[in-house]
Design a protein that fits this description.
alpha+beta
Length: 247
């Protein structure tokens, strides 16, 4: 990815897309990147990312490197999975793989990684201007992103993305999984304000950008154990003002 310029698809009809977004405060942008750009990002996510597993233990976020997780004995893995399932059954919970490249790069790490170009692109004038127009919010100023890999049995339970003191204006998901099947799960699901019903669900279609205004009850559906590919994405938020700084 370092030898090509990351850019939006020049054929996007931003005004028409914005007219659709304003109705539900969420939407999808097909073919967000030129095909060559999307394919290059896909290849980086498949083969050049130091993934770690992130999960919620009932009290706080936790992370474990994939080599460490894979080194567990079968009995240990089963006990680990059972604890996560018990937490998720009581309310909020998640389990998926991630590379928090924006945070790592703020710490001065991975500065030669191919996703450095994406980290710079997400807060570039063309991307910020597109988001301002698309969601109708001229105060958007910067974005922050991380990569995600949802495999079989992984999930992200119901939440709203609202965090006190952080001015998230919208959330986004750039999808990079080719040929996803609807019965593999992994949908981005939107709920009514009291979570009494599912209003809509977006499949992780290739080279499609999903966006929604924060706060909004949503989840990532359980990925089926028989899913033949990971649910790959780059996801994050756009903010009014600067993106939060990593301490």
């Amino acid at each position: 990815m370092s030898d090509i310029e990351i850019c939006l698809n020049p054929d996007l009809d931003t005004e028409a897309l914005a007219a659709e977004y304003v109705v539900k405060k969420r939407g999808q942008v097909p073919n967000i990147f030129p095909v060559k750009v999307a394919d290059q990002i896909h290849e980086v996510l498949i083969g050049q990312v130091p993934w770690e597993m992130t999960y919620f233990d009932g009290q706080r976020d936790q992370n474990i490197s994939l080599p460490e997780f894979q080194a567990m004995l079968p009995q240990q893995r089963m006990q680990f999975a059972q604890k996560l399932q018990q937490t998720a059954s009581r309310g909020f919970g998640y389990s998926y793989n991630t590379f928090k490249f924006h945070e790592e790069m703020q710490r001065g790490k991975y500065l030669d990684h191919p996703l450095k170009a994406f980290d710079e692109f997400i807060s570039s004038p063309p991307m910020v201007e597109f988001m301002r127009t698309y969601i109708g919010d001229p105060e958007i100023n910067a974005g922050g992103a991380h990569a995600t890999w949802f495999g079989g049995g992984q999930y992200l339970n119901l939440h709203t993305d609202k965090i006190p003191g952080i001015d998230r204006r919208c959330a986004f998901v750039f999808n990079f999984t080719k040929q996803w099947r609807p019965d593999w799960g992994g949908e981005l699901k939107f709920y009514s304000d009291r979570a009494a019903s599912v209003e809509e669900a977006f499949l992780p279609s290739y080279n499609v950008l999903n966006v929604f205004t924060v706060p909004k009850p949503h989840s990532v559906g359980l990925v089926a154990p028989f899913a033949a590919a990971p649910r790959l994405a780059i996801t994050g938020w756009f903010y009014a003002g600067d993106a939060p700084k990593v301490v």
